[in-house]
Structure formats: structure tokens, C-alpha cells
Amino acid sequence: MNTSDLKDIWNKYDEKLEANWALNYRILKEIKMDKVQSAVRKIKTGGIIWIVIQHLIGIFLISTAITHYERPQILIPTIMLAVLTYITAFWGSHNMGLILKVDYNEPVTRIQENIQKLKLSKLKNYRFIFIFSHLYFWLGVIVLLKIDVLILWQNSPLFVIIQSLFVLAYFPFALWIIRKYSSKKPKSRFWKALEKDSLLTEDSVGKNINDALGFLEEIEEFKKEN
Amino acid sequence: MNKPIDKPEFLRTLKAHEKILFKVCNLYCRNPEDRKDLMQEIIIQLWTSFHRYDSKYRLSTWMYRVSLNVAISYYRKTKRHADNHFSSLSHLIEVFDTEDNEHLEENTRLLYRFIRELNDLNRALIMLYLDDYSYKEIAEIMGITVTNVSTKINRIKKQLKQKFEQMEKSI
């Protein structure tokens, strides 16, 4: 078998294609394609709104920190909250940059690299939010309600100890869940149900963090001349 | 601001090169429903990218580039799209299974199967080669060097030939 044989076989396949597929152009003509385009735009708008909200929260936190600079029991949680907020805001901006870079007109390897990087970045972002969500919640409660932790400690030390232990215990718990999601071992029905449509699993952003990394390596390998 | 897209022109372009879409969908999706979904996604991306088409390239080259990019991204998602905004398009596509199609010759079916066994990037490469694109055009679509295209295509051709030979021997 030589090259022209392969091409001959392919051409026969080409001839049969029209008989196997049909695109209804009459219906396509009637579809409002602009509406479709606006659905794509909505995805980008959603990302921009997320970044704006994070920045507004950041501004609120900075102003709170300035107002309470003499009260470390409010100032410290506010700064911690602002740091967490800005990390997610900058991460969101980074993701937005990657989304805007996705242009299907570009060469296959370049665009696929961008898509895989975006998947990885979004997944890491979601996981970061998940890990710190409990701490974020309590810091938020302290800052919004202007709770003086020292007074709370004096009035109810047991409550503070228990809540602090919960916050601390949440970190290994969150990491355990993420490790469980990432595991390649067969999972029970309970875990499969839990994973379904979860932002922490790769289905939400593509397939798998290992898969995305693997494909990036595959692209690198593909680009090499060997 | 993007210039408005001329819909009749877009549809004419789509019709003139529809086989590209059919081929890409057939080679990247096994399930007929997935193929329909992929076809929808490709049409959407072609529509949204149409105003950015650079006339220094052939239209078919541009269509291949967009279609392959969408297909490879789509192919890498195992889950079907839950939040499909474009389900309204599904009824305009009729699709049949190439592998099970009795009208296809055995050799065609085999070639089709062997190409499907390649990884997604090599699959794109050989598809372009079999469709008579020059190494330079393939290099532009894939974003690799011409030398690299040539090396890889020779390797894939060798693999395909070996598979055919093995198949012949086993019969």
C-alpha cells in the first residue's frame, strides 16, 4: 500500500459523506444567529461581573481597615479578608485574560495550550475558594458585624475555641475531599453523585487536572521535532 | 466593534465547505448525539469567528482550523454539555454512523477506524494531509514547523500502512 492508495480510500470516504450527513440550511437561515452570539458574550460578561464584585468587596474592606486601624481585633480579620478577596480577584482577572485569548482562528496547538491553561487555572481557583471558604465566612461575619473577638473571648471562650477548631479542622477536611476527587481509584456511588457537576471536579472546567496537564505535555511533545 | 456578519454569505460558505465539518465531526465523535452537539458548537464558533476570517488564507483552511480547534476541545470533555445554550440547532442536523454504514467499502471503514485510533493532534494532521493540504498549510493550521509536519506525517503514514498490512495478514 502506498500514499496514493491511502488518498484514494480517503476520497471514496469523501464521496460518501454527503449521503451520510445533511445540514438543513432552510432552518439555519431562520435561526437568529445574533442571539447565539450573545449567549457566548454572556459567558465573558459573567467573568467581568465576578471581577468587579471582588474589587468592590476589596474597596469596602480597605475602607473598613482604614476606619478601624486602631482596633487590631477588627483590623487583622479585615486585612486577612482583603488578602483572600484580592487573591481571588486577581485569579479571576488572570482567567479572564486566558478566556479572551481563546480565539479559534489561531493555530491548533496554540489555542489548545491556552484552553488547557485556562482549565487548570479555573480549577485551582475554585479549589482555593473551597479550601478557604470556611475561614472567609467567619472573617466575613467578624468584619460585617464588627465583632470584637477579644470581648467574645472574655464572654464565651468555649465558643471561640470550638469555632476556631472547626475552622482549623476544615482545612484538612477540604484537602481530603479534593484529594478524593482527584483520585484515579474507582469511586463509590456516593462520591460519584457528589462529584457530579461540582465546581471542584474537572467536569466543570474540562475533564481532569491530570488530564489537562497530560495534554499540555502531549502538545509540547507534538511541537518538538523528533 | 465587530462588523456585522453577512448571514447569507456565511451560509454560502458553510454550504460550500460542509464536508469539512462532517469529516471533523465523524472523526472526533463516536456517538451520533455527540456529533450533532459538536456540529452545533462548530457552527457557533464559525459564526462568531467569521468576521475575523483573514482572506490571505483559503476559506477551507480557516474552516478546518476553527473546526479542529472546537473538535479537539470538545473531544477532551467526557461529559456532555449540561448548559448547552444552543440546543435549538440540534434539529437541523441529520447524522449517520460512518463506521456502521453498510455503503462504505471495507478499506474506507478500516482507514476511518485506524485514523480514529490516533491521538487527537495526529488525527487532525493526517486528515489535513489526506485532504491534499500542503505541508505549509498544515503547519499554519497546526502551529508547528513544516519539517515537523513532514516528519509526523511520514510516521503516521507508516503506522497506517502497517495496520493495513497486519489486517491483510490476519484475513
TrEMBL record, chain A:
<keyword id="KW-0812">Transmembrane</keyword>
<feature type="transmembrane region" description="Helical">
    <location>
        <begin position="74"/>
        <end position="92"/>
    </location>
</feature>
<feature type="transmembrane region" description="Helical">
    <location>
        <begin position="47"/>
        <end position="68"/>
    </location>
</feature>
<feature type="transmembrane region" description="Helical">
    <location>
        <begin position="128"/>
        <end position="152"/>
    </location>
</feature>
<feature type="transmembrane region" description="Helical">
    <location>
        <begin position="158"/>
        <end position="178"/>
    </location>
</feature>
<keyword id="KW-1133">Transmembrane helix</keyword>
<keyword id="KW-0472">Membrane</keyword>
<protein>
    <submittedName>
        <fullName>Uncharacterized protein</fullName>
    </submittedName>
</protein>
From TrEMBL, chain B:
<comment type="similarity">
    <text>Belongs to the sigma-70 factor family. ECF subfamily.</text>
</comment>
<dbReference type="InterPro" id="IPR039425">
    <property type="entry name" value="RNA_pol_sigma-70-like"/>
</dbReference>
<dbReference type="InterPro" id="IPR013325">
    <property type="entry name" value="RNA_pol_sigma_r2"/>
</dbReference>
<dbReference type="Pfam" id="PF04542">
    <property type="entry name" value="Sigma70_r2"/>
</dbReference>
<dbReference type="InterPro" id="IPR014284">
    <property type="entry name" value="RNA_pol_sigma-70_dom"/>
</dbReference>
<dbReference type="Pfam" id="PF08281">
    <property type="entry name" value="Sigma70_r4_2"/>
</dbReference>
<dbReference type="GO" id="GO:0006352">
    <property type="term" value="P:DNA-templated transcription initiation"/>
</dbReference>
<dbReference type="GO" id="GO:0016987">
    <property type="term" value="F:sigma factor activity"/>
</dbReference>
<keyword id="KW-0805">Transcription regulation</keyword>
<feature type="domain" description="RNA polymerase sigma-70 region 2">
    <location>
        <begin position="15"/>
        <end position="80"/>
    </location>
</feature>
<protein>
    <submittedName>
        <fullName>Sigma-70 family RNA polymerase sigma factor</fullName>
    </submittedName>
</protein>
<keyword id="KW-0731">Sigma factor</keyword>
<dbReference type="GO" id="GO:0003677">
    <property type="term" value="F:DNA binding"/>
</dbReference>
<dbReference type="InterPro" id="IPR036388">
    <property type="entry name" value="WH-like_DNA-bd_sf"/>
</dbReference>
<keyword id="KW-0804">Transcription</keyword>
<dbReference type="InterPro" id="IPR007627">
    <property type="entry name" value="RNA_pol_sigma70_r2"/>
</dbReference>
<dbReference type="InterPro" id="IPR013249">
    <property type="entry name" value="RNA_pol_sigma70_r4_t2"/>
</dbReference>
<feature type="domain" description="RNA polymerase sigma factor 70 region 4 type 2">
    <location>
        <begin position="109"/>
        <end position="160"/>
    </location>
</feature>
<dbReference type="InterPro" id="IPR013324">
    <property type="entry name" value="RNA_pol_sigma_r3/r4-like"/>
</dbReference>
